[in-house]
Amino acid sequence: MCGIVAAVSTRDIVPVLLEGLRRLEYRGYDSAGIAVLEPVDAKSELRRLRAAGRVAELAGQVQAQGLAAYTGISHTRWATHGAPTERNAHPHVSGGLAVVHNGIIENHEEIRARLKAAGSVFTSDTDSEVIAHLVAFNRKSSVSLLSAATQAVAELEGAFAIALLCESDPEAVVLARKGAPLLIGLGEGENFSASDVSALVQVTRRVIYLEEGDCAELRPGSVRIVDARGTEVERPVHVSEMTAQAVELGPYQHYMQKEISEQPGAVAATLETVIGAQSLQPGLFGADAEALFKDVSSVQIIACGTSYHAGMVARYWLESIARIPTSVEIASEYRYRDSVPDPTGLFVTISQSGETADTLAALEHARTLGYRATLTICNVPESSLIRQSRLRFLTRAGPEIGVASTKAFTTQLAALFLLTLVLARLRGKLDRHAEATYLQALRHLPAALQHVLAAEEKVAAWAKDFASRQHALFLGRGIHYPIALEGALKLKEISYIHAEAYAAGELKHGPLALVDQDMPVVAIAPSDTLLEKLKSNLQEVRARGGRLYVFADRDAPIGDEEEAVRIIKLTDHAGPLSPILHVLPLQQLAYHVALVRGTDVDKPRNLAKSVTVE
Ligand code: F6R
């Protein structure tokens, strides 16, 4: 989704803004822009450049115009209100004032009507432009840009992160945050702001996360923050662990390729604190976890997209190992449904970014339904979900830049397996021997993942068959059905091939009608108790001339390859951890198909990394 980078310094900050925007490209966007206060004689002049396209185009314009300044704001826009054109790109201006905005202003129509009547001239179709005119209007009667902004923010409904600057106060950038992430980066004699820390690792790792309702004023030598009640406040300074190297591509062609290959290390890092342990402690999930987990009667899991698939896998573990009733639901459905809550249950949200608007709203909804025990599994420390949940588990995947989630997914699964074991032990469903066996399997997991990755060449060879197809089916059974769903999601989002997944037993209830010699059918076929059933389903495909692509375990009693049946054998069957292994070749398949088709692997069209709007 949209990204903000802002800076105020005593040196030229234009290169910092452009580099920050490049580092936010992964969030997904369709236009970009910059506004700076350029020193002209003794005054400052607002200059704005915008491009309907990539940051590289904007950078070209900046170079051609020789833009240089000490104060500036910049933006990548993911269109919501108004097409992705230059006139709708941010920053939006009103006189000598410019603003960039992430989120949605829900009451923009009424504010626009009022300001138009008062003489403001609007030049875009966006909801965001009202902010520029509203602050400019307030500025006429307020003592400072900050107070004009706080007054405006009090009127705005919806979710937003805002950065603005004004010719009347050329050494200031003003910020506001409500429902969308925004942080301050602290420098020496300069200060910055951005939507996430990856945009600023080039200049600082000392950051302040603005809290809900905060407004702030940045100057080269000072930072002032006021809370929602207008009281001046201090917020803690964090030193981010993110390094510039962690967000660099290195020897890889794409971030997705890098992130797929990082999975053994990411899973090992996520499991680090338990890998040497004899037994699992509830404290892994937070100080209150034991007390809150002890009497939970059920688990309700809420997430979106790939994170939802992780929740679906976890349901199989939680019910079969911890014997606890578990429901999984898509956040955007749950938040508006009249459900029957179990307030004595554990409410779990799963999110890579921790900023997904629907998941945040579902958590809030759960609180109103009476849930007390709330847990978030998330990859971003200090994210909104982490801060709003009572319990938390941080996956340690490191920054995930490719829009298609890969290592975040496998680390979520590792975390959910730990949750299963902890709940199972507290509920008396796990004896010492079983716990030791599972822990041993977890210790072996990074090595097993490395082994599975080694099949890449064979997977890449299959990709050529898929690249010319319009459709594909993915089949799995039991705990591998969500893995089939995840494989189909990966393929459609980065290769744009229409892919559907089914629980293989459902095939003959409808989808079998789609199968002919042009339909590739991918089967996830681990050596579990459902393998024989799955083999019968595959025969149904074979009999209709379908082309089968089977991922099996090393020792799988599964037939020999023939022209229309291709098989890749991965590694030894991993028992309940098998889904974590079997998703890897599906990620590789999607990646290689996208490579052959020449799509934008890391930034697929229309998608955003962090979905901060509803
Ligand atoms: C797909 C993908 C998305 C996200 C979804 C939820 O590859 O990444 O489906 O999983 O948008 O995002 P988070 O996990 O950040 O809540």
Keywords summarizing the entry:
about 35% helix; alpha/beta; 7-stranded antiparallel β-sheet; 8-stranded antiparallel β-sheet; Rossmann fold; binds fructose -6-phosphate; about 625 residues; about 25% strand; globular; 18 helices; Glutamine Phosphoribosylpyrophosphate, subunit 1, domain 1
Task: Describe the 3D structure.
The protein has an eight-stranded antiparallel sheet. The protein has a seven-stranded antiparallel sheet with strand order 5-6-7-8-12-13-14. Strand 18, helix 11 and strand 19 form a beta-alpha-beta unit. 36% of the residues lie in helices and 23% in strands. It is built from 18 helices and 25 strands. The termini are close together. The model has no long low-confidence stretch (mean pLDDT 93). It has three domains: 245 residues, Aminohydrolase, N-terminal nucleophile (Ntn) domain (Glutamine Phosphoribosylpyrophosphate, subunit 1, domain 1), CATH 3.60.20; 197 residues, 3-Layer(aba) Sandwich (Rossmann fold); 142 residues, Glucose-6-phosphate isomerase like protein, domain 1 (Rossmann fold), CATH 3.40.50.10490. It is globular, with a radius of gyration of 26 Å. With 614 residues, it is α/β, with parallel strands linked by helices. The longest helix is centred in the C-terminal third of the chain and has 22 residues. The protein binds fructose -6-phosphate. The site of fructose -6-phosphate has 15 residues, from helix 9 and helix 16.
